[in-house]
Design goal:
The complex is a heterodimer of chains A (about 300) and B (about 400). Chain A is mostly helical and about 300 residues long. Chain A has eleven helices and four strands, in the order ββααααββααααααα. Chain B has a six-stranded mixed sheet, with helices on both faces. A four-stranded parallel sheet of chain B has the order 8-7-9-10, sandwiched between helices. In chain B, helix 5 links the parallel strand 7 and strand 8. The chains are: A mainly alpha (about 300), B alpha/beta (about 400).
C-alpha cells in the first residue's frame, strides 16, 4: 500500500478532509472577526460568545417553537446580529477613538457574562441537537466515510466565505464600507450614513458567528463552553492571516484546520498547541501576518 | 492574546455562628469543596457537589457537639497549580479542615501532597486515578467513589468476556487518562485480549473525528474511551456520526457519568455499557435522596461523584464526632477507617488501610429511548460486582500503608 509520511494514503486523505471540516469553522469565525477588526478596528473578544448564543438560539427555537434547523439557520443569525447591533449602538459606539484596548476589555467582559449566564442556566455538558433528517447518514468515499452533514458544512461555509469576500472587496457597498473606515468624515460628507454602516457591519460580523454556531450545534453539542474553546484558536488564525485581511482569514482558517488535523495523526499530544506555534513563527518572520499589510 | 481568568475563591457560609466546644480547632469545622465550577467537569461535580456536601451537613444536624459546620467551595479549573494554591490558602489561612471532591486526577495528586504535609483530611470523590490509593497513597486521604482500577475491572473485563478482545484507546493526555489506560490494559491482557494501539488527545478536545479515524483503521473490535466528561460526550457523538458503530466496531466508555448520558440523549447513547458505584434509581433510599438533591440542583439528578461527596462528608463528620476532635487529620482518617460506614447511597461499607473505600460497583447498560419511562430513566442493571471484587486487592497495591 502506498504511504505518505508512514501512514497509508487513504488514511491520509481522510485526515485532510477532516481538517478541512474543522477549518471551515475556523474560516467562518475568523472571517467575522477580520471584518470587524478590519473595518471597525475593534478586537471583538465576544465573538465566541456570539457563536455560542447562535447555537443556543437554534436550540431554543427547536425546543420551544418547533422551528427546525433550516429555520434556525435564518432566524438565529438575525436575532444574534440584532443583539450585536444593539451592543454596538449602546456600548461599543462610545469607545471609538479610544485605544482599541478598551473595546477588547468591553467585549471580553461581555463574553464572560454571556458564557456565565449560559453556564448557570444549562450547566457545562450542554444540550444535544439532532442532525437534520435530510443529512443523516453519509457516503463512503472509498478512503473514508463522510457524514453528509459534514459535507454540507464544508460546502456551505465555502460559499459563505466567498460571498462575504466578494461583497466587501468587489461591490459598491463594500467600497463604501472600506472608504468609511479609511476616512469617515469625507464619506459622511458625501451623504453616506457612516454610523449606520458601522452598526450594520458589526451586526453582520456577529451574524456570521451565530451562523457558524447553528452549523456547529449538530456536530458538537449546544454547550456554554463551545465559544471559549474556539475563540483563542480563531484569534490565532486571524493573527496568522493578518489582522483584518478577509481573504487571509479564509485561506488561513482552512489551512490551519488541515495542519491541525495532520498533527492529530503524527503527534496528537501537540494538536492543541500547533496553531500557536505557527502563530509565533509567523509573527517572528512577518509581523503583519501572512496576508496583512504592514502599517 | 491570552487573558487568564483570575483565581476566584467563592466562599459561601452555609451554617453560621452557634456555640463552640473546646476540642475543635478554631471553633468551626470547615469543609472545602474543591472542584471544577466552570469547565468540562462542572456538571458531574461543580455546584452539585456543594449541594451534596451541604445536604450531608444538614442531615448530620449542622453541628458536631455544638461546633458549627461550614461549607466553602472554589474552582480549581482543572489545573494542578491552581488547585494546590487554593488548598494551601485554605489549610494555612482560611482554617479549612477537610478538602472534598477534586474531579481532576493531576490536581488531586497535587492536593494529596499538600493535605498530607499540613496533616488535614482529603476526601476524594471526583478524581479517578488509582494511584491515590496506590503509590501516592497517604494516611490523610480517603478515596471514596470509584477509581480507574474499578472502572477497568467493570467495563473492561465485561467487554473482553463478551468477545471484545482487541482494543484501541482514545486517552485523555494527563494523569487520569494514563492511569485508566494502564489499568484497563492490564485487565484486557489478564483476560486474554490484546491492545492494538492508542492515541493521546489533549484534555478538552472538541473534535474527535481525526482520532476516531485512526481507531477505525486499527481494525480493533473495541474503541476504549479513556477520557471523561465533555471529551467522552464528543467522542461518542463523533463515533455515531462517522458510522463507527455501524461499521462493526463497538465503543467502551470507561468513565461515563449520568450527566454525559443526559447530554448525549438516549438516541446516541443507547446500548453503551458503563460502570458506576451509584445510580439514583437503584432503590427507595437512593430515589428519596436524589429527589431532594434534584430539587436543589435545577432538576439535574446526582452523579456518582456528587453522591460520593455526600456520603464521604457524612462519614467524616461521624468520625470527628466519635473522636471529639478535628485537629489531627491522620487521627480523623484513622477513625474513619476504624468505623464501618453506613449511608443511604452506598449502603454499608468499609475503608481499607490504603484509604480505599470499599463498596459494590454496578455494570449498567444505557436504555433505548423506548425503554425510558420517566425523566433521567437511563440505566438498566447488567451485573453487580460485589464489594470484595470491585477494587484492587490490597496484595497488588503499591501503597506502603497496605504493607503495614
Amino acid at each position: 500500500m502506498t504511504t505518505v509520511f508512514g501512514i497509508p494514503v487513504q488514511a491520509f486523505l481522510g485526515q485532510l478532509l477532516i481538517g478541512l471540516i474543522n477549518g471551515s469553522f475556523y474560516a467562518l469565525l475568523s472571517l467575522g472577526l477580520a471584518i470587524i477588526f478590519g473595518l471597525l478596528n475593534i478586537v471583538n473578544f465576544a465573538h465566541g460568545a456570539f457563536y455560542t448564543t447562535g447555537a443556543f438560539v437554534a436550540w431554543f427555537l427547536l425546543q420551544y417553537a418547533g422551528i427546525s434547523y433550516w429555520g434556525a439557520l435564518i432566524i438565529s443569525p438575525l436575532v444574534v446580529g440584532a443583539l450585536g447591533m444593539a451592543i454596538e449602538r449602546t456600548m461599543l459606539k462610545r469607545l471609538y477613538g479610544l485605544d482599541p484596548l478598551y473595546g477588547l476589555l468591553l467585549t471580553f467582559g461581555l463574553a464572560l457574562i454571556i458564557q456565565g449566564l449560559f453556564l448557570k442556566q444549562f450547566g457545562s455538558s450542554g444540550e444535544p441537537y439532532e442532525i437534520p433528517d435530510m443529512f443523516k447518514g453519509g457516503v463512503s468515499l472509498g478512503f473514508m466515510f463522510l457524514p453528509n452533514y459534514r459535507a454540507w458544512v464544508i460546502g456551505f461555509s465555502l460559499i459563505l466565505c466567498l460571498t462575504t469576500w466578494y461583497t466587501i472587496e468587489k461591490t459598491r457597498l463594500g467600497s463604501y464600507l472600506r472608504a468609511a473606515t479609511e476616512n469617515p468624515t469625507l464619506v459622511q460628507a458625501f451623504g453616506i450614513n457612516v454610523p449606520l454602516l458601522i452598526t450594520l457591519t458589526y451586526g453582520m460580523g456577529v451574524a456570521l458567528a451565530a451562523l457558524a454556531g447553528v452549523m456547529a450545534a449538530p456536530i458538537y453539542r449546544v454547550s456554554p463552553l463551545m465559544g471559549s474553546d474556539m475563540i483563542i484558536v480563531v484569534f490565532a488564525v486571524v493573527v496568522i492571516g493578518g489582522m483584518g485581511s478577509i481573504m487571509g482569514s479564509i485561506v488561513t482558517g482552512f489551512s490551519l484546520g488541515i495542519i491541525e488535523g495532520l498533527t492529530k495523526v503524527f503527534y496528537p499530544e501537540a494538536s492543541n498547541v500547533v496553531i500557536f506555534v505557527i502563530m509565533a513563527l509567523v509573527l517572528l518572520v512577518k509581523s503583519a501576518g501572512l496576508f496583512g499589510r504592514a502599517q | 492574546m491570552m487573558i487568564e481568568r483570575s483565581l476566584r475563591i467563592l466562599t459561601v457560609l452555609s451554617c453560621v455562628a452557634g456555640a463552640s466546644s473546646a476540642q475543635m480547632t478554631d471553633k468551626v469545622i470547615k469543609i472545602g469543596v474543591l472542584n471544577d465550577q466552570s469547565g468540562l467537569y462542572a456538571d458531574l461535580s461543580g455546584q452539585g457537589s456543594v449541594v451534596a456536601a451541604k445536604m450531608a451537613v444538614e442531615d448530620f444536624g449542622g453541628k458536631v457537639d455544638g461546633t458549627p459546620i461550614e461549607v466553602v467551595f472554589a474552582d480549581h479549573q482543572n489545573k494542578p497549580d491552581v488547585g494546590s494554591n487554593i488548598a494551601r490558602q485554605w489549610l494555612d489561612v482560611d482554617k479549612v479542615d477537610v478538602i472534598v471532591d477534586v474531579p481532576h486526577s493531576a490536581t488531586a495528586l497535587a492536593v494529596n501532597d499538600v493535605v498530607k504535609e499540613k496533616n488535614k483530611v482529603f476526601l476524594v470523590s471526583g478524581a479517578a486515578s488509582s494511584d491515590l490509593t496506590g503509590k501516592a497513597c497517604s494516611p490523610n486521604t480517603v478515596h471514596w467513589t470509584y477509581d480507574t482500577w474499578s472502572l477497568a475491572n467493570g467495563t473492561g473485563k465485561y467487554t473482553v468476556k463478551a468477545g471484545g478482545d482487541t482494543w484501541f484507546f482514545l486517552t485523555a493526555d494527563y494523569a487520569f487518562g494514563a492511569a485508566l489506560e494502564r489499568d484497563t490494559t492490564a485487565v484486557i491482557k489478564a483476560n486474554g485480549g490484546k491492545v492494538l494501539g492508542s492515541v493521546k488527545h489533549p484534555l478538552n478536545t472538541s473534535d474527535f473525528s481525526s482520532f476516531l479515524l485512526q481507531a477505525q483503521s486499527s481494525k480493533a473490535k473495541i474503541i476504549g474511551l479513556a477520557n471523561a466528561g465533555g471529551d467522552t460526550i464528543n467522542s461518542i457523538k463523533a463515533a455515531s456520526e462517522f458510522g463507527i458503530v455501524k461499521g462493526g466496531q463497538k465503543l467502551a466508555g470507561l468513565l461515563v457519568f449520568i450527566n454525559d448520558v443526559h447530554a448525549l440523549g438516549l438516541p446516541t447513547a443507547q446500548g453503551l455499557n458503563l460502570t458506576e458505584s451509584f445510580y439514583w434509581d437503584r432503590d427507595d433510599k437512593t430515589r428519596a435522596w436524589s429527589k431532594r438533591f434534584a430539587e436543589r440542583n435545577k432538576g439535574h439528578h446526582p452523579s456518582m461523584v456528587q453522591a460520593g461527596v455526600y456520603a464521604s462528608v457524612l462519614h467524616y463528620l461521624k468520625a470527628v464526632q466519635a473522636l471529639k476532635s478535628d485537629g489531627d487529620g491522620k487521627a480523623v482518617v484513622a477513625k474513619m477507617k476504624a468505623l464501618p460506614s453506613d449511608d443511604p447511597l452506598f449502603g454499608k461499607g468499609t475503608i481499607r488501610k490504603d484509604g480505599r473505600k470499599i463498596h459494590p460497583m454496578y455494570l449498567y447498560e444505557v436504555k433505548k429511548p423506548s425503554e425510558s419511562k420517566k425523566p433521567w430513566d437511563y440505566y438498566r442493571l447488567i451485573h453487580e460486582i460485589p464489594a470484595d471484587e470491585a477494587f484492587r486487592p490490597l496484595s497488588e497495591s503499591e501503597c506502603p500503608l497496605a504493607k503495614s
